Amino acid sequence: MPVKARKTISSTTLLVLIATAFPLQATEISVHLKDDKNKALSNIAVWVTPNNITSNTLTTPVTINQIGKAFDPYLNIMQVGQPLVFANNDDISHHIFSASRDKNFSFRLKKGESNSSVEFTKGVSIAMGCNVHDWMSGHLLVVETPYFAITDSSGKVTLNVKELGEAKVEIWHPQITDASETLKRSINITEISTTLEFQLKKPMDKIPEQKSGDDFDFLDDY
User: Fold this and answer.
1) CB within 10 Å: which end of the chain, N or C, has fewer?
2) CA–CA separation, 90 vs 177, rounded Å?
3) Across the chain, how many H-helices and E-strands are there?
4) Residue 217's pLDDT is what?
């Protein structure tokens, strides 16, 4: 009785089958930031953009609040195409506007109102103000990647990136005075976690205080 030949699976095919059955986990990219005096830098935007990015656009809305006649948070970050909401939590009116040629918007918000009409189709940094309260200032950074965060009190963020290969890591804050080329690095993402450290060479500018010395407010019928 003839013996049937056995079908063998090549090592390459086996690896493909394993990868299909057990998808690769995301790689942790940790970033630590310090200022020019070697102290932890909190509230700094960090983002990773893989060259071969395939991840979907985030659908969770980003909210910029107006609380106590101030933008909260002062700096926010979001992805291109991600929903954005401006929410007036004060009991007075605001008139929000952008101070950027790349993206103009201006709208009034009465107490308790919100606005979700602003959309972004490209990466940009936006400075914002209020026509009613001229001391109010805030910043929004729009990036073309879902991998972003704001550094915590220890100056750290950890991002879980799904795509392997070449990528760019960048940091930003409107008060950073270092040259832009020192705030970005190219890396090669593998399955091994990576830790990067950035340290500023120059002192940051002072963040403007969102506070007025007078008690004047526009009434709600503004």
Assistant:
1) N
2) 33
3) 1, 16
4) 52
